């Protein structure tokens, strides 16, 4: 049996001189298997074509549809409306990131800056020869690297982080996860000292308060807690 659900969506256009932050309320018929992504599309098609939100894959792969759902950062495409017993769902944009409009935020430029900051590429001591086979890597090491590479850069771990909300220069769990990925990679020749230069301060690994909301909310269930602890142990040894 279907029911009516109420969605309160944050609306604000920073580029408009007349726009003011407010919530718009929509009531719609819930359908079997309805996700927030589906609900938002219904709202945009039937009630409010001006409502802005992001999506690409609709399958929890691209990370575009991250938002606060009743105060919790999550992916709209992976969130079922039936899981909210009250039938009332409040949507807000992710904090920390630049607001573009309504529920849409700019995670791309933030992630790009983070990637450059941690020098997110293999550092080697020789010129790669693309005509030759890549260097062999032990399967266990490769599996560890692949596990951390599953990060979809949705920004949810950043939005859930108390330090990132308070301090705009904090690299966040996504950045520390990225550093751990290259630290583990046998093809990367950087030393612990090199990584210390990148994250050995309060804007890096020592800024983490270990609240672990990052891992609690990660939609890909990455082992962020153990990777942050791993990097902290490595960096503490150099202090």
UniProtKB/TrEMBL annotation:
<feature type="domain" description="4Fe-4S ferredoxin-type">
    <location>
        <begin position="142"/>
        <end position="171"/>
    </location>
</feature>
<dbReference type="Pfam" id="PF13085">
    <property type="entry name" value="Fer2_3"/>
</dbReference>
<dbReference type="Pfam" id="PF13183">
    <property type="entry name" value="Fer4_8"/>
</dbReference>
<dbReference type="InterPro" id="IPR017900">
    <property type="entry name" value="4Fe4S_Fe_S_CS"/>
</dbReference>
<keyword id="KW-0003">3Fe-4S</keyword>
<dbReference type="InterPro" id="IPR006058">
    <property type="entry name" value="2Fe2S_fd_BS"/>
</dbReference>
<keyword id="KW-0479">Metal-binding</keyword>
<dbReference type="InterPro" id="IPR009051">
    <property type="entry name" value="Helical_ferredxn"/>
</dbReference>
<protein>
    <recommendedName>
        <fullName>Fumarate reductase iron-sulfur subunit</fullName>
        <ecNumber>1.3.5.1</ecNumber>
    </recommendedName>
</protein>
<dbReference type="InterPro" id="IPR036010">
    <property type="entry name" value="2Fe-2S_ferredoxin-like_sf"/>
</dbReference>
<dbReference type="InterPro" id="IPR012675">
    <property type="entry name" value="Beta-grasp_dom_sf"/>
</dbReference>
<dbReference type="InterPro" id="IPR017896">
    <property type="entry name" value="4Fe4S_Fe-S-bd"/>
</dbReference>
<keyword id="KW-0816">Tricarboxylic acid cycle</keyword>
<dbReference type="InterPro" id="IPR001041">
    <property type="entry name" value="2Fe-2S_ferredoxin-type"/>
</dbReference>
<dbReference type="InterPro" id="IPR004489">
    <property type="entry name" value="Succ_DH/fum_Rdtase_Fe-S"/>
</dbReference>
<keyword id="KW-0001">2Fe-2S</keyword>
<dbReference type="InterPro" id="IPR050573">
    <property type="entry name" value="SDH/FRD_Iron-Sulfur"/>
</dbReference>
<comment type="similarity">
    <text>Belongs to the succinate dehydrogenase/fumarate reductase iron-sulfur protein family.</text>
</comment>
<keyword id="KW-0411">Iron-sulfur</keyword>
<feature type="domain" description="2Fe-2S ferredoxin-type">
    <location>
        <begin position="3"/>
        <end position="95"/>
    </location>
</feature>
<keyword id="KW-0560">Oxidoreductase</keyword>
<keyword id="KW-0004">4Fe-4S</keyword>
<keyword id="KW-0408">Iron</keyword>
<dbReference type="InterPro" id="IPR025192">
    <property type="entry name" value="Succ_DH/fum_Rdtase_N"/>
</dbReference>
């Amino acid at each position: 049996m279907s029911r009516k659900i109420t969605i309160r969506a944050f609306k604000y256009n920073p580029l408009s001189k007349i726009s003011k932050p407010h919530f718009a309320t929509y009531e719609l018929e819930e359908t079997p298997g309805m996700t927030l992504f589906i609900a938002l599309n219904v709202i945009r098609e039937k009630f409010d074509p001006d409502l802005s939100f992001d999506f690409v894959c609709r399958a929890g792969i691209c990370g575009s549809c991250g938002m606060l759902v009743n105060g919790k950062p999550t992916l709209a495409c992976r969130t079922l409306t039936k899981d909210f017993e009250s039938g009332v769902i409040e949507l807000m944009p992710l904090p920390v990131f630049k607001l573009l409009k309504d529920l849409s935020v700019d995670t791309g430029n933030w992630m790009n800056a983070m990637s450059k900051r941690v020098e997110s590429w293999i550092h080697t001591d020789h010129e790669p020869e693309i005509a030759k086979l890549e260097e062999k890597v032990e399967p266990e090491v490769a599996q560890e690297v692949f596990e951390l590479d599953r990060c979809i850069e949705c920004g949810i771990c950043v939005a859930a982080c108390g330090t990132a909300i308070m301090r705009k220069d904090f690299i966040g769990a996504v950045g520390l996860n990225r550093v751990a990925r290259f630290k583990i990679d046998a093809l990367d020749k950087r030393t612990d000292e090199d990584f210390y230069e990148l994250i050995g301060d309060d804007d890096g690994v020592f800024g983490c308060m270990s609240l672990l909301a990052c891992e609690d909310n990660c939609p890909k269930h990455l082992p962020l807690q153990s990777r942050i602890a791993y990097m902290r142990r490595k960096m503490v040894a150099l202090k």
